[in-house]
Design goal:
The structure is a single chain. The chain starts with 7 loop residues before the first strand and ends with a helix. Helix content is about 45%, strand content about 15%. Helix 1 crosses helix 2, helix 3 packs parallel to helix 4 and helix 8 packs parallel to helix 9. Strands 6-5-4-3-2-1-8-7 form an 8-stranded parallel β-sheet.
Length: about 260
Amino acid sequence: MNTSKKPVIMGIVNITPDSFFEASRCQDDEKIIAQTTKMLAQGASIIDVGACSTRPGSAPVSEEEEMRRMRHALHIIRSQFPDVTLSIDTFRASVAQMSVKEFGAQIINDVYGCDEKMYDTVAKLGCSYVLMHCKEVNSTSHEELLKKIFTFFATEIEKLTSKGLKDIIVDPGFGFGKTMEENFALLNMTSQLKSLGYPILVGISRKRMIWQTLDITPAEALNGTTVLNTLALTQGADILRVHDVLEASQCVELYGKYNI
């Protein structure tokens, strides 16, 4: 299955004290700069900044605190890396608007979706929008799983395009609202979402489906992440959202040699 465009890497910079992977937390200015510098040098095309953890069981911080964290981090990143492509990991329309208006962020990565206020905001801003599936599926078969997820995307994409938004990225939402079996079944069927006609983002880095399956910790899940990222590439992933950019870049490079 040949692809005309090389998949790109989105590097994760978490401005949070409680993200599930401790090494990704950037709690001071020097760490933010160092992490961004490293990721860009290792091959990241996009830096995804998150200021409110969405790990399972976490309680979202207030809108004011997320705004404060995000504005501080984006000021640092933009001052050091003025041309970097910025993705904003948020479910709040106000944070999305601030990030685009004040710092020129190009992508809003919304982990919750189905929010008309967010839809209206990103449509007016004219930025790219990552639409993620995060609803519980409760499927009785793999066919029903795919049908429910496909229907979700078709419905929400129609809403977005009706508001004038065209630059949409589809994220199957691994680890959100899905059982372990559903996560792996969805990975095996990701290529079928290509018929929607939009780029596919896969965010599977160090997630529970890896470390719980292997009975390890998130800190030990790099090898498993690389394996599943490789499988995601065979399924047509256009963007890999990762904590470990070097290994993901190597994965893309080797896959490119294989996929000729």
